Amino acid sequence: MRSNFVHHIVATAEYPDKEKINEYKQQLRERILNGVSKCNRAMFIFDEADKLPEKLLGNNHGGKSIAKLALSHHQAGSAREDLTLNNFERMLMEAAYNKPGKCQ
């Protein structure tokens, strides 16, 4: 996506050293604050979020659900680009709500 308001972050390229977690937290915080200050609907895409240093993000609770939905979509013969936010919203809300210690 080519937009100043879509930020694609590749975990293994941008956050390779687990020892620099505090530095990465500050960098990511500034990047997000800067992005949303320019556009309150800025989008941040975390590629390979499961490979981010632990504690950089709060969690990746929806990762398995996203992968499962994408796989079933692919197996049905549909293109990945045809997935929309609506495909994910309810599933992610349920995944977050049902996670032990979260929203319960």
Automatic annotation (TrEMBL):
<dbReference type="GO" id="GO:0071218">
    <property type="term" value="P:cellular response to misfolded protein"/>
</dbReference>
<dbReference type="Pfam" id="PF06309">
    <property type="entry name" value="Torsin"/>
</dbReference>
<dbReference type="InterPro" id="IPR010448">
    <property type="entry name" value="Torsin"/>
</dbReference>
<protein>
    <submittedName>
        <fullName>Uncharacterized protein</fullName>
    </submittedName>
</protein>
<dbReference type="GO" id="GO:0005737">
    <property type="term" value="C:cytoplasm"/>
</dbReference>
<dbReference type="GO" id="GO:0016887">
    <property type="term" value="F:ATP hydrolysis activity"/>
</dbReference>
<dbReference type="GO" id="GO:0005524">
    <property type="term" value="F:ATP binding"/>
</dbReference>
